[in-house]
Amino acid sequence: MNKIVFFILLNLFILCSVKQTEALPIKKLASDLLSFVGKGTYYDVGPGSCGQTNSNSEMVVAVNKEQMANGSNPNGNPKCNKKVKIVGPSGKSATARVVDTCPGCDNGSLDMSPALFKKVCGDLGLGVCSIHWEFE
Q1: Where are the beta strands (DSSP E) in 4-127?
Q2: 67 closest CA partner among 95, 29, 93, 41
């Protein structure tokens, strides 16, 4: 009889000590969980495909046309205003906001504001550098 009471009490203890957990909400699309490799270039920032006007001193970026995937209304693009983390060849990194489309950039490549290019790649005289980046 003592063994039965012991097992009942043990099971009650185990059941009472189990903590209920909840799944975390999924905030990112599968395509946004990837890290991308490409070329980083810079451009003269102005009115962008996201419907905003930005400046060369801001930490902003234009995503290549394929990954930007503009629809019939590019101002409503879900990539607009998303944050990207970019790492340059020397390991310097920066976070920037997506504000435009780069029609001439290859898949995986980004066109950056001059201020962002300087921070990630260095001297503007380079013109292009290797980068890897991901959506935050």
Answers
A1: 35-42, 60-64, 83-87, 93-102, 110-112
A2: 29
CATH code, domain carrying 113? 2.40.40.10
- Structure confidence by residue, pLDDT tens digits, 5-39: 555 655 556 655 655 544 444 444 445 568 999 99
Domain-embedded: residue 8 = no
Higher pLDDT, 51 or 22: 51
Alpha carbons 93 and 132: distance in angstroms, whole number: 10
Number of domains in the chain: 1
Tell me the longest C-alpha to C-alpha distance in the chain. Answer: 86
